[in-house]
Write a structure and sequence with these properties.
Radius of gyration: 24 Å
Order of helices and strands: HHHEEHEHHHHHHHHHHHEEEEHHEEH
Largest sheet: 5 strands, mixed
Strand order of the largest sheet: 1-2-7-4-3
Number of strands: 9
Strand content: 5-15%
């Protein structure tokens, strides 16, 4: 036995093979054992294979499509196995809302997959649980509000950033370009201003690298190889994507630490410049009181990293979808231009304009709905045994609230797979709210930056459409613009270029202002 253990520790092909065989035997044993125990009335689902579970029935690059298809056969609550991991999937608006909102306590914890643990180590906001999550979320939410999240202060910050973004767009002089980098930088600067207390220049190398690495990690986290890693963690030594993700993580945390040290050197507890300053003050006070505290370095780094990534990716991706859809459907873009010209004219848009721009607001909402940025939401886990809609779900079970099935619920949306701003308009052309519009998820784990994201989307989109007409590159027709999303944890537009053509009407408005 000792010889076998020594052999398994050697990095030889024989050791690896023996280790793999023993691991497979162990996993098959555990899987068989788990399947012999039935806890009440489990949700139905496809029969899993030993070790593999339902992996052969899933498109690991686009699992949300496979799960939506399964829901048509097994209903709004069903069980699927990702390898040996049992997952209960919730599909459709009514079921997802009932779970996340009406039973928020039972479904309120975050499931921690291997890659999530590697990235966050149980700290920060997005992927922590218990007291750590409660305290970090409470601190972040209160601090973001203090710095004007969703209020006048944020509005001024966003409006100032729109001018920088417009300058970049204008620099291409109507020629085709990739909107990814400038839009990512513009949106990232909003959360940076709140967290760090200042914005960055778009050509700042450190800023560029932080944005690029965050985007790359979000993309790779949704890759098929990382899905496999989450099922079989022992695979990681062979996975290139895992190594890239962890290398990106270390570099980003190092950059954040350098910024923190710089802010710490000029810290004034009576005049906090951003969230980091507030955290450092709380850390100092806790240290002075000599008691255990959650305000330590790991939580600071992970909280900042979480906010930076989450505050950039979804909003910037939605804006890019919006511009692509405007180029794809020029007749819809025409109506947006007409409404903006009529209501705003040549002045800068403000949040109060939203109520007088029902069609523009509907276009933004429909972009969020159709783009379906986070189709599987972030995974949850049950905090206790739950009897839900006639089924039994055991404590500690991973739960996927399938947001894609909510935003494209055939019983809630007239044309779920079509870009139709009319989904958010009444017969008089006035904006109407839809209960099944849940891009920010719901319940106690809903996006804490929702109000800021909504403000950003409206002001950036309206400002850009006020000044530019978006068209396909020369020689490319609207029909040739591809709406197939790239593979990743979030659904981004496939690589493309657009032309941002300066609108003559807008130029005349500002010249006469």
């Amino acid at each position: 036995m000792a010889m076998l253990g020594e052999l398994l520790l050697q990095p030889t092909s024989t050791g690896i093979l023996l280790g793999a065989v023993l691991m497979i035997l162990l996993l098959v044993y555990l899987f068989s054992d788990s399947n012999t125990e039935q806890e009440g009335n489990d949700p139905p689902g496809p029969k899993p294979l030993p070790l593999l579970g339902n992996m052969l029935q899933l498109d690991l690059s686009r699992p949300h499509l496979s799960l939506r298809s399964m829901s048509k056969q097994y209903g709004s609550i069903f069980t699927v196995y990702f390898g040996l991991k049992k997952v209960v999937v919730l599909a459709g608006y009514r079921t997802v809302k009932q779970a996340l909102v009406n039973h928020s306590e039972e479904f309120g914890e975050r499931d921690i997959s291997p890659i999530v643990h590697d990235l966050n180590q149980g700290f920060g906001i997005l992927f922590s649980n218990g007291e750590n999550w409660k305290e970090m979320r409470r601190f972040a939410l209160n601090t973001l509000r203090d710095f004007g999240m969703g209020k006048r202060g944020s509005e001024e910050t966003i409006l100032a950033e729109t001018s920088y973004l417009r300058d970049v767009f204008e620099s291409f002089d109507g020629k085709p370009f990739d909107t990814t980098h400038p839009v990512n930088c513009a949106v990232s600067n909003i959360i940076s201003a709140i967290v760090y207390g200042s914005r960055f220049e778009y050509n700042d190398p450190r800023f560029q690298n932080m944005v690029s690495r965050a985007n790359e990690n979000i993309r790779l986290t949704g890759s098929a190889s990382i899905q496999l890693y989450n099922m079989f963690p022992w695979l990681r030594v062979w996975l290139k994507n895992w190594k890239i993700i962890m290398r990106n993580r270390e570099k980003t945390l190092k950059d954040i630490m350098q910024i923190v040290h710089s802010l710490q050197e000029t810290l004034n507890p009576q005049d906090c410049r951003g969230l980091i300053d507030c955290f450092l003050v709380r850390k100092l006070n806790a240290k002075a009181e000599e008691k255990d505290t959650l305000y330590h370095e790991q939580n600071l780094l992970q909280t900042v990293s979480n906010l930076f990534a989450a505050g950039t990716e979804t909003t910037s991706t939605t804006l890019r979808w919006g511009m692509l859809l405007m180029a794809k459907y020029p007749h819809i873009q025409d109506r947006v231009h007409q409404e903006i010209d009529h209501v705003i004219g040549g002045r800068h848009p403000v949040v109060e304009d939203r109520r007088n721009l029902p069609y523009t607001d509907a276009v933004i909402h429909e972009t969020q709905r159709l783009a379906d940025i986070v189709p599987m939401s972030l995974p949850h886990t049950t905090t206790r045994d739950v009897h839900f809609q006639g089924f039994f779900i055991k404590k500690g079970t991973c739960v996927f609230p399938l947001l894609s099935s909510v935003l494209k619920d055939e019983t809630e949306w007239e044309h779920p797979d079509t870009f139709n701003p009319g989904h958010f308009l009444d017969e008089q052309g006035q904006f109407i709210k839809r209960d099944a519009f849940m891009p920010f998820s719901g319940g106690r784990r809903a996006c804490l930056g929702e109000s800021l994201a909504r403000m950003e989307l409206f002001l950036f989109f309206t400002s850009l459409l006020q000044h530019f007409r978006f068209t396909p590159p020369p020689g490319v027709s609207e029909d040739q613009l591809d709406l197939t999303p790239s593979v990743g944890f979030t659904l981004c537009p496939s690589p493309h270029e657009l032309c941002a053509v300066r609108r003559g009407a807008s130029r005349q408005h500002f010249q006469s202002e």
